[in-house]
Each structure stands twice: as C-alpha cells, then as structure tokens.
Amino acid sequence: EALVHNPLNVFHVQVDIQDVNDNAPRFRRDKFQLEISELTSPGARFVVGVAEDPDVGSNSLQGYELEANDGDEHFSLAVQAGPGGDQRPELVLAKALDREEAAFHELVLRAIDGGDPTRTGTARIRVTVVDANDNAPVCSQAEYTVRVPEDVPVGSVLVTVTATDPDEGLYGHVKYSVKKITQKASQIFHLDGDTGTMTLLQRLDFEKGDSYELEVQAHDGGGLFDTTKVVVVVTDVNDNVPEISVRSALSEISEDAPSGTVVALLHVRDRDSGANGEVRCSLDGNVPFRLEKSFEDYYRVLTARELDREQVSEYNVTVRAADGGSPALQSSAVLALRVLDVNDNAPVFAQ
C-alpha cells in the first residue's frame, strides 16, 4: 500500500513476479529398486516415482524420457495423466525377461522441463530379475561309458556324472539319483547324490559280469530333470590260472602197448578271456608220451613209443598248462602210471 500525504490518499500496488527457469525437475528419490519375475508377461506396467518442478508455465515439468544401458530393449516408458492433470511415468515391460541372460537391468529416468535452456532431473532405476524354474538340468553327456579293469580297488571313483542348471538357488541346485539299475549292480556301485560320483562298493569280477548299465537322473529343486545312461565296461585281468581236470586216466599200462595208446583224457580251461584265457599245454621232461588235442578244450595223453618195463617201471607224467597272459599263469597235473610186465625176455645165463 502506498500512502500519499498531499493530498492524503492510499493507493494499492500489485507486483507480479515473472518466473525464470531457476529450478530443475527433481525426484524425491534418485534411486529406485524394482523386482520383476522372469515369467512376467510383456505389457506389464510398474509405477515409478514422479518428479516435481516448482517453476510454472513452460518452465515447469513437461515430460519424461527413459534411457537404458547398452541399448537394452526390455523396457519402455508410458506416461499417464493423473486426476489433476499431472504426468505419472510408468515402466512397461516390452520384452520377456531372462535372468540367465541378464540378472539386472540399469535404467535412467529423466524428467525434462520447458525452459530455455531446459533443465533436467534424473533417477536411476535398477530392475532385479527374480529367478523362476524355467531351466531343467542338462547332463554334460547323453551317455557315459567307462572301461575299468576288474582288479580296480574297492572305493575307487569310476565316473562322475555332471549336469548344469543356469537357474539360481533351489532351482539351480542339482542332485543325482539312480532310476534304473539291476539288483546285482546296486550292490556293486554307489552314486553320491550331491556330487554325481560313482564309486565301487565291492570287487568286480569279469567272469561274473563284463558290463553294467545304469540310468542316472539329475534333478533340480523345482522338479525338472534330465537323464543319462552310464555304462561300466569291465576289462579282463589275468587273475585265473588254467584248470586241468583229469576226465579219464589209466593207472597201469602193459609194456607191449602199441604206440599211440591213450593213457589219459584231460579237460583244460581258463576262465579269463582273450589272450589271458588262451591255454597252451605241454609235458615236462623226456618221457615216452605226447599230447594231442582232441576237440575244443580236451587233450589226450598218448604213448609216443613202445615202453620197456625193464628200463622204467613207473612214470609220473607232469602235464603243464600256461595261459597267454603277461605274466603268464600256469598249473600242472601229475599222472602216475605203472608199467606192467610181459614175458618179452628169455632167461640169459651169466656165463
């Protein structure tokens, strides 16, 4: 109010302050945290904070912009009009999320006024992608084949099954179990459910089983799984000596028996396989007998020439069998044979 004294009067004065763009838009918080499940469908909207600008008119807040790091196209910006005409920014999911591809998304929300020059205010938005069990475990091999010798020590690790699951937490924790196994194999092999290692519980025997097949399942905490086959091939070791069994044998033979007379019938076998099971038979010493293979694993011991009781009345014939292993294993059997006398000598006077 302006007071004038002469003449005395009062005037009312109104001062209008013209706005200048001396305030930038400002968010109440400069950082926002959002958690969004990777199963969220595109089109979903998420409210973020609004900015304030105390300026008026064109100097006040005019709009928002969204900037993503490294050209991220998973989010876009939508601005809704509030009941009072104010603008409310919303984050829109434009592309399906995948935590295994990117666990976090960094965005910058920018508020812009209409001044000249313009002023801006920013807020950083960090989107954390919440994991869902959208990945099943995957075994590193569809089939594991391991060859082990039959003399491998008990407790040895034969094979380790590995599977990966890119999910996290419970959904990414893989455990292992045997889903298909014979009763016999279940007593020989043990699978560690946490590590996937298969160890030997008892000694292997090639002659009792040369291969075993198991089905192993890798499963996560959400019920998803993958299966693989484990084949254990047992290789032979030369751990069996040849076995000689006398099926028939003479204990006595006449000294006038013709050459080629069968003295004994032998059966020879070696439970090993390959070269370890190939048997060679022979007779020890210089004896008037010979070996002849009959068929398959049977041998005959025959006289090689006529006998003479007056020179040798008894024979202990040693039959030796050796396999083709390295080192070779061997066994032997002794045939006791007494030579019977015949009247093939006339009396002879000393003088």
TrEMBL record:
GO terms for molecular function: calcium ion binding. Residues 28-139, 140-244, 252-349 form the Cadherin domain. InterPro entries: Cadherin-like_dom, Cadherin-like_sf, Cadherin_CS, Protocadherin/Cadherin-CA. It is found in: Membrane. CDD domains: Cadherin_repeat (cd11304). One of its GO terms (cellular component) is plasma membrane. Keywords: Calcium, Cell adhesion, Glycoprotein, Membrane, Repeat, Transmembrane, Transmembrane helix. It is a single-pass membrane protein. SUPFAM superfamilies: Cadherin-like (SSF49313). This is PCDG7 protein. The lineage of its organism: Eukaryota, Metazoa, Chordata, Craniata, Vertebrata.
